[in-house]
Design brief:
This protein is an all-alpha fold. It has helices at about 10-30, 35-40, 60-85, 90-105, 115-140, 140-145, 145-175, 200-225, 235-240, 240-255, 260-290, 295-325, 330-350, 350-380, 385-415, 420-425, 425-440; strands spanning about 50, 55, 185-190, 195.
């Protein structure tokens, strides 16, 4: 198949469409149904579990496992990008992580507390597959789009992701709320007692559907995106560790690019807080909000998730428009200020209505800050064909930030027994992020 020219509409749409394929993982597994499902496995108010030889608060355990996964991704990213640069097949690596993540989603069908280590392995596979594929997906942006196209196509990708994920989520939520309509029944044990409700069974089916959706719809992107120029070289030890040398090279080049360096510092700090909140939001709502009963809790969390996703579509669009009018940095400062206020608000909220208000605000700034952060970095890059190394550096910085953020969040949650204290602490990162964004020069080397 003939490769399309850079900037062509078909190529840009094919790149953006991968967001449609993989965002179902971020919504269903990370942000909605899996957190609700994980909570239903604990039958007592004291949600503690023993794993890896230690007793954990349930939310702290999943937080620590998530942090470990991001640490692995941060370590693997430069290795894989180094191989991809030499072999010239970043699309194959993107495919591998896509299929690994989809297999992990399907494996969550068998998630059980009695077999917690294998269960967490499937969770690990899904998470590493999702974020690992994004390393190569993000690195395509400057390859397929010109600078003036990058803000809009990045926002379009996020918007497609939100729309696609909401479509599947609505189907999955219908299954969870009305399992009898889908001929899903309770699972009964040998003693004629209910082992699992029909809603829980429906949640397991939804994990399988996410994996299938991810693989199925990614094929369009894989068919259109360029593979890269094959070098014909074999993978040697030198090539495997070339990625770390490339990261060092990028770091050295940052010394001559003050604008990019200062932006990366700011991104590292505010992304640490943003990603942590997005990963723990539903767990926070499940544990800290007075819903008035399990059914009301499940319904309330579902409504809040839908609100976040629907508002996020508008948020990504308006943020893109604001950046074109006021500039990327000024828009990021404003969005970070909103996030900072949300941390204070979340500490005090207790009622479902207050949670819905917070969900609306989170949705508005969630897609916007992710889309704009990615396209701003792409715009600030120097003229180079080695985009994979630069985006590997970007992704490593993001992942290490998430590791730090999740560990701090989980540690405070484990020690104090309250996620409110954890969420309040994240205020500091947004404040520092705003300060650092103010220090980003308007021009390179200024």
């Amino acid at each position: 198949m003939t490769e399309l020219k850079k900037g062509s509409k078909k190529l840009l749409n094919a790149w953006a469409f991968y967001d449609w394929a993989n965002s179902v993982y971020a919504l269903t597994i990370t942000s909605s149904i899996f957190p609700i499902f994980y909570s239903t496995l604990f039958l007592t108010e004291v949600k503690r579990i023993t794993a890896f030889g230690y007793e954990f608060k349930s939310t702290a355990l999943i937080t620590f496992v998530t942090a470990f996964t991001f640490l692995v991704v941060a370590f693997l990213s430069p290795i894989l990008s180094g191989i991809a640069d030499y072999v010239g097949n970043k699309k194959n690596f993107m495919k591998f992580f896509c299929y690994l993540g989809a297999a992990g989603c399907i494996g969550l069908y068998w998630f059980q507390l009695d077999n917690i280590h294998w269960s967490l392995l499937f969770y690990f596979m899904g998470l590493i597959g999702y974020w690992g594929s994004l390393v190569f997906y993000n690195s395509y942006l400057p390859d397929i789009a010109y600078p003036e196209q990058q803000d809009s196509i990045s926002a379009k990708g996020f918007s497609l992701g939100y729309i696609g994920s909401v479509i599947l989520l609505l189907i999955n939520l219908a299954m969870v709320m009305f399992p009898n309509v889908f001929f899903i029944e309770d699972r009964i044990g040998a003693d004629a007692k209910v082992i699992e409700t029909a809603s829980q069974v429906a949640m397991r089916y939804s994990f399988v559907m996410v994996g299938v959706w991810w693989v199925l719809f990614s094929q369009y992107s894989f068919n259109i995106l360029p593979s890269g120029n094959s070098s014909g070289q074999k993978v040697t030890k030198s090539i495997v560790f070339n990625g770390f040398r490339e990261l060092k090279g990028v770091w050295n080049q940052l010394k001559q690019n003050l604008r990019l360096k200062r932006y990366l510092y700011a991104f590292f700090v505010f992304s640490m807080a943003v990603q942590t909140i997005m990963l723990v939001a539903v767990y926070f709502g499940e544990e800290e909000i007075a819903w008035g009963g399990d059914d009301a809790k499940q319904f309330g969390l579902i409504i809040s998730i839908l609100v976040i996703q629907l508002v996020a579509i508008l948020g990504a669009f308006l943020t893109s428009r604001a950046s074109s009018k006021f500039g990327n940095i000024k828009t990021l400062i404003a969005v970070n200020f909103i996030w900072m206020i949300l941390c204070f608000y979340a500490y005090f909220m207790k009622t479902p209505l207050q949670f819905y208000i917070a969900a609306s605000a989170v949705g508005f700034v969630m897609g916007g800050i992710q889309s704009l952060a990615r396209s701003t970095y792409s715009k600030f890059l120097p003229n180079t064909e080695d985009t994979t190394s630069y985006f590997s550096f970007y992704d490593v910085a993001e992942k290490i930030g998430i590791v730090i953020g999740m560990l701090i969040y989980g540690f405070i949650d484990q020690i104090t027994g309250s996620m409110r204290n954890s969420i309040l602490f994240l205020f500091i990162f947004f404040l520092l992020g705003i300060f650092m964004l103010f220090r980003v020069p308007k021009q390179t080397n200024s």
